[in-house]
Amino acid sequence: MRPWFGLHMPNYTFPDTPPERLLERVVDQACAAEQAGFGLVTVMDHFYQIDGVGPETDPMLEGYTTLGAIAARTTKVRLGTLVTGVTYRNPAILAKTATTLDILSGGRALFGIGAAWNDVEHDGYGVEFPPVSERMDRLDEALTIARLMFAEDRPSFTGKHYRIHEALNRPRPIQPGGLRILVGGMGEQRTLKIAAKHADMTHWFAVGLEALKAKDEILRGHCEEVGRDPAEIERTTQAPVAIGATEKDAERLMEFVPPERRRAIRPVTVAQAPDIIGPYVEAGFTGFTFNNTIYRTPEAIAVAGEALKLVA
Question: What is the DSSP letter of 30?
């Protein structure tokens, strides 16, 4: 599979942009990614801004509404959340919401989901935040329900936390067999095991190539346990590079990288990027996400896109 780039958009803070013009700023970035050859645009599924991006009081847009607006203004890029928290919505309603995005985007939706983590916004919105073991159980059941609703006419399911009874989901997704499922997170005991069972794709933080290889070995072990071919699961990660038109530009981009990620991200020019990304591709990683907290303008996104043409 040829490597692809994705633009992740967790940041909606534009000091010179009032709320009534925010849509245009968001769409400008998404369209810039599409024009630069990116294959995916994602948004967070949060209601407060998160640490590492900005203070919780910064602007935040609801994920699926935002994706619907982007779908109306783009034609090629896949669209999804990176990732939806399983606690926020009934999984059957979530499957319906994601299916609607697939219909309205012409078959471009991706179903990104994880176990959720931000207890602050759960508390603020009055959403239950169970212990991590229960959230993992809920994730497993939610993915079972989503698969059923994407593929079957009137599926039923009864689990410990969720149930559906002859659930209708019409029209069904445009994509044959339903949306591709992306499980976000790299917890070794539960998240990667759930990914081995359900995922078409995984997404992991930039933590360095050797650490990612170790996670991949654990995923392969879980695949063997559940009788799954690990080659069926696409590996994606946060891009290990900050790409600038010049070395000085790349160094400036590093100012926007969260301190805890800087060890795993290198400032590079377009010509230098393939040397860093290439070993990740050789290790089986085919998708690399770039963050709009770093790439803040269409011009910066276009520069990153130039590197995509050079990555084998």
Answer: H
Q: Which amino acid is at 76?
A: K
SS3 label, residue 16:
coil
Q: Map residue 60 onto helix, strand or coil.
A: coil
Got the DSSP string for 124-137? HHT-----HHHHHH
Taking alpha carbons only, the member of 193, 308, 290 closest to residue 236 is: 290
Q: Are 152 and 79 in contact (CB under 8 A)?
A: no
Whole-angstrom distance, CA of residue 291 vs CA of residue 209: 19
Cα separation of 239 and 303, whole Å? 14
Our CA dihedral for 197, 203, 206, 210, rounded to 10 degrees, sits at 30
AA letter at 85 = G
Residue 240 CA to residue 273 CA, distance in Å, equals: 9
Cα separation, 142 vs 92, in Å, equals 8
pLDDT of residue 90 exceeding 90, the answer is yes
pLDDT in tens, 113-172: 999 999 999 999 999 999 999 999 999 999 999 999 999 999 999 999 999 999 999 999
What pTM did the predictor assign? 0.94
